[in-house]
TrEMBL record:
Keyword Signal attached: no
Signal peptide: none
Keyword Magnesium: no
UniProt xrefs under InterPro entries: CENP-V/GFA, Mss4-like_sf
PROSITE patterns associated with the record: CENP_V_GFA
Keywords from the named record: Lyase, Metal-binding, Zinc
Family: Belongs to the Gfa family.
Name the record gives this protein: CENP-V/GFA domain-containing protein
GO molecular function list: carbon-sulfur lyase activity; metal ion binding
Domain CENP-V/GFA: 32-157
Source organism of this protein record: Melanomma pulvis-pyrius CBS 109.77
Length: 184
């Protein structure tokens, strides 16, 4: 019997509910798709190393504004392992709200506006993707489960954070190898 809710789904299998214009998302052992809301843009990304780098929650003010929500749920992949299956992306770049002063480029679906990923000048060769764009909802709770929650100092008061996840007041990434000293 197939599951009809995220909570009831068998976490050892794929769970791809109708959540946008496309219904051709997929999930394999080491790779899965991320699709925009209208379905025009679809990407394939690695769900494990070496292409899969990290997964994190960010409460910073920049993330709150760009997601139109209270926090961003992100994961980082190496660009060498990111495949553009279809769709052109529109970009918008600025550095004003980035703590490091580095340029952050945002890649959107020009049709529906879904933010698919961001690329920071302080973190070359990597894309910061969005967990919510991933078609297999079970991955949100398994392989993409956040490993750290950062900028807790900017967290909205009614959200108490992700239980059992390392909490960092500011940026969790200070070395140059990680998603930058910037807010991401
Ligand atoms: Zn779209
Ligand atoms: Zn952020």
């Amino acid at each position: 019997m197939s599951a009809t809710t995220t909570a009831a789904s068998d976490k050892t299998k794929s769970y791809i509910p109708l959540a946008g214009g496309a219904s051709d998302g997929w999930s394999k052992e080491d790779e899965a798709t991320a699709t925009c809301f209208c379905g025009a843009v679809q990407l394939a990304f690695p769900t494990q190393g070496p292409g899969f780098i990290d997964s994190f929650i960010c409460n910073c003010t920049d993330c709150r504004k760009i997601t139109a929500s209270m926090f961003a749920s992100n994961f980082v992949v190496a660009d060498t392992h990111l495949t553009h299956i279809r769709g052109e992306l529109k970009t918008f770049a600025q550095s004003r709200t980035i703590a490091s002063g580095g340029l952050m480029t945002n890649y959107f679906c020009p049709n529906c506006g879904t933010l698919m990923y961001r690329r920071g000048s302080g973190f070359p060769g990597h894309s910061i993707m969005r967990i919510g764009t991933v078609d297999d909802f079970n991955l949100h709770e398994t392989k993409l489960f956040p490993r750290v929650e950062q900028f807790t100092k900017d967290r909205v008061s009614w959200f108490k954070g992700v239980e059992g996840v390392r909490q960092v007041e500011g940026s969790a990434y200070s070395s140059k190898k990680t998603p930058s000293s910037s807010k991401v």
